[in-house]
Write a structure and sequence with these properties.
Strand content: 5-15%
CATH topology of the largest domain: Beta-clip-like
Number of domains: 3
Strand order of the largest sheet: 1-4-11-10-7
Distance between the termini: 72 Å
Largest sheet: 5 strands, mixed
Bound molecules: S-adenosylmethionine
CATH superfamily of the largest domain: SET domain
CATH class of the largest domain: Mainly Beta
Structural class: alpha+beta
InterPro entries: Gramillin-biosynth_MTr, SET_dom, SET_dom_sf, TPR-like_helical_dom_sf, TPR_rpt
Number of strands: 12
């Protein structure tokens, strides 16, 4: 190689290193790229001495490694991973690259592969001076790998500290589920084995999230627009950086012709999956995602933190977030939902809010399940859905055939004594032999009058003996709509009023804990659940 070329390459490398040290990531990537191109070219030329070739290969390995580090600082993890692989092709045990690849894989939630990188790096003599630092990563990977295999999450410490530290980083987890054609609409997620109420089903990190401060008010239209625009920009940015994610996003529904949509294998959503995801519409890797389609996908699938089926764990409740989570996007709506979600930072934890039988479809409540049929129908227009569940069918028939139900609705509008309305509804159900789940449907629909009645001492003095006990109503509602925060709150208030110290209080306390697990999922130990209830119910 001519001396001038050698000098130029040396200059390029020094400049790239300098930019790298100064943390000017974009410029350092550009300069390393120039150097890498030149170096690769020279390696392909004949007549180089073995020593020279060895030197070039070493420089190339270090440059790939540093460019990977710079890319990972810019959160371009997939491209960083490619660079790590190029470096490791040159030197399979290159210490710095192994550490960089481990960190990148950890960011991509590929825990077992990351673990392998750190394990190999620890064998290198260079690890001696960095043992503590690599051990830290190694332990983190081990913990996450276990979590992603078992889904056994414990947020107790964070909750006991009053959510004071940053939201904990979690591992992605996919429980015993599959995606199948759904009788509700299009595709849905189904459990493949029996699951207890409270058990975790999915833990998924958002593709993108955007939050806005509420400051005690509703968001103005302008703020909402800015928030939505920022959110869309983040999703677009992600799709540019990761083609696998872009192809997975393209598998989501746009809310039309759902029954003709392909049913993807759940495994392609696993972070560890390296299978290239072919989209049904072969998308050119270098062309941006079709914006009209993306906007429709986001409209149908993005989730907000203020939904009825969601709980948010954080100190400051004065903000509100919107995000896109891939696998949870396949969960359909039911007016008798069996799952809820918990937001922890950018993670979404989906858990069973009732016991689930193998083969059952997992459903969220997009619409408030503690509201009457007419309200639910009104709200379903926003979602563009026409719910045909058993509950809607039953309530539709009842509304047509039983005048008393309409009278109760009119009574609510006119502000009639709530105790009287509960009494009337219960008497009607007795007379028409409405029992079991159907009784639960109507009680859930008229929850507003039940909760007001149980919450008023005056009302309970007057009607208490003639209407069913709160816990019986709570049980029958929970049986059809799963754990609900509002039911939990009113049970807790009653427990507080009664003092909760005697033996019957202990039984009631156990009931509250059971319901709390259905509402929040099994994410904390009992002592921390007490704190969680104090922190959240106080809101
Ligand atoms: C988040 S996606 C749910 C997964 C979707 N079924 C799929 O195949 O990708 C939301 C869309 O599913 C459909 N959907 C969900 N629940 C429904 C229900 N109970 N009745 C009718 N359509 C429903 C609606 O088209 C809605 O816009």
């Amino acid at each position: 190689m001519a001396t001038t070329t050698q000098e130029f390459m040396q200059q390029l490398r020094s400049k790239a290193t300098e930019l790298f040290i100064r943390e000017e990531w974009n410029d350092s990537i550009k300069t390393y790229s120039q150097f890498i191109n030149l170096c690769t070219h020279h390696l392909s030329l004949p007549h180089s001495s073995p020593l020279h070739l060895q030197k070039l290969r070493k420089s190339l390995c270090i440059s790939f490694c540093n460019r990977a580090e710079a890319k990972s600082r810019l959160r371009d993890f997939n491209s960083a991973l490619q660079d790590c692989d190029h470096a490791l092709q040159i030197d399979a045990t290159h210490f710095k690259t192994l550490v960089c690849k481990g960190k990148v894989l950890l960011s991509l939630n590929r825990y077992s592969m990351a673990l392998h990188c750190f394990k190999t790096a620890l064998l290198d003599p260079q690890a001696n001076g960095n043992c503590e630092f690599i051990d830290g990563y190694f332990e983190k990977c081990k913990k996450f790998e276990f979590l992603s295999r078992t889904g056994s999450l414990d947020l107790s410490d964070w909750v006991l500290n009053g959510f004071s530290a940053k939201a904990p980083e979690l591992a992605e987890f996919i429980g015993a589920v599959e995606i199948r054609k759904s009788e509700i609409s299009g595709r849905g997620i189904f459990v493949t084995k029996n699951i207890d109420a409270g058990s975790l089903i999915l833990v998924t990190k958002a593709i993108a999230m955007e939050r806005s401060i509420l400051a005690g008010k509703d968001l103005s239209e302008d703020t909402q627009l800015v928030m939505w625009k920022n959110f869309v920009d983040k999703v677009v940015d992600f799709t540019r950086k990761c083609h696998k994610t872009r192809n997975l996003i393209c598998k989501l529904s746009i809310g039309e012709n759902e029954d003709s949509l392909e049913v993807p294998d759940v495994d392609i959503f696993r972070p560890e999956s390296v299978v290239e995801v072919n989209s049904s519409e072969d998308i050119d890797v270098d062309i941006d995602i079709d914006m009209v389609r993306l906007l429709a996908i986001l409209d149908v699938n993005s989730l907000t933190e203020d939904a009825v089926s969601a709980n948010v764990l954080r100190k400051n409740h004065d903000c509100y977030g919107v995000g896109l989570w891939l696998l949870p996007s396949f969960i359909n709506h039911s007016c008798c939902p069996n799952a809820r979600r918990l937001h922890v930072g950018d993670y979404l934890i989906v858990h069973a809010s009732r016991d689930l039988k193998a083969g059952e479809e997992i459903t969220f409540a997009y619409l408030d399940p503690l509201s009457p049929l007419n309200k639910r129908k009104e709200m379903s227009v926003t979602w563009g859905i026409h719910c045909k569940c058993k509950r809607c069918k039953f309530e539709g028939e009842i509304l047509l055939s039983k005048q008393e139900v309409k009278e109760i609705e009119i009574g609510i509008e006119r502000g009639t004594d709530v105790g009287g309305l509960v009494y009337k509804l219960e008497e009607m159900m007795k007379r028409w032999k409405i029992r079991g789940k159907e009784k639960g449907y109507l009680r859930a629909s008229f929850w507003s009058v039940y909760s007001e009645a149980y919450g008023s001492e005056r009302c309970m003095k007057r009607w208490g003996r003639r209407i069913p006990a709160l816990d019986a109503v709570a049980d029958s509602i929970t049986d059809v709509v799963g754990g609900d925060l509002r039911v939990l709150k009113i049970l807790m208030e009653e427990l507080k009023r009664k003092g909760g110290g005697n033996s019957s209080g202990l039984v009631e306390m156990e009931k509250v804990f059971t319901l709390a697990r259905e509402v929040y999922g099994k994410v904390v130990k009992k002592q921390a659940m007490r704190t969680l209830l104090e922190l959240c119910i106080a809101d």
